[in-house]
Write a structure and sequence with these properties.
The chain is mostly beta strands. The protein contains one helix and seven strands; from the N terminus they run H-E-E-E-E-E-E-E. The strands form two sheets. The protein has a four-stranded antiparallel sheet, with no helix packed on it. The chain has a three-stranded antiparallel sheet with strand order 3-4-5, with no helix packed on it. It starts with 13 loop residues before the first helix and ends in a 15-residue tail after the last strand.
Length: 156
């Protein structure tokens, strides 16, 4: 939240104004997780912020790592429905105490949600999530049912 200051035409910086406008637009657009072309499997949800994630794969599982610093474990919910894994929760903002004022608040607070469509070869029954040091780890084991195989194509 920017603080109010008296405008001084000799200290006005148009480039700083443009930078702040760009930051506001980026924050506004990052709050809309648009998922087009997914049908009814994923819905449009308005969120306050979006945690960064890394998704990796081994022979046995997919691993989703989400950065959720200063979020309580009880405020995180991981669900799996119709092949869509959803991570949602809330980061609560500190309250101003008497004698303490915030001069700048740049971190995002409030609710968040991320959804990922899982491939068909995952074992939904053994999905596991763990939370440590502000990182949520979601282990999605592969079922092994859909093993890719090569098909020889003959050309005449």
């Amino acid at each position: 939240m920017a603080s109010l200051a008296q405008w001084d035409p000799f200290r006005w910086d148009p480039f700083r104004e443009m930078e702040e406008l760009g930051e506001r637009i980026n924050r506004m657009l990052s709050r809309l997780p648009l998922r087009l072309g997914r049908g009814d499997r994923e819905s449009l949800t308005l969120v306050d912020w979006t945690p960064a994630v890394d998704i990796s794969e081994t022979d046995s599982e997919y691993l989703i790592k989400a950065e959720v610093p200063e979020v309580n474990k009880k405020d995180i919910k991981v669900t799996l429905q119709n092949g869509v894994l959803t991570i949602q929760g809330e980061r609560r903002q500190e309250k101003e105490d008497k004698g303490r004022r915030f001069h700048r608040v740049e971190r995002s607070y409030g609710s968040f949600a991320r959804s990922f469509t899982l491939p068909g070869e995952v074992d939904e029954q053994t999905l596991k999530a763990e939370f440590k040091d502000g990182i949520l780890l979601v282990h999605v084991p592969k079922s092994g049912k859909a093993t890719p195989k090569a098909i020889e194509v003959k050309v005449d």
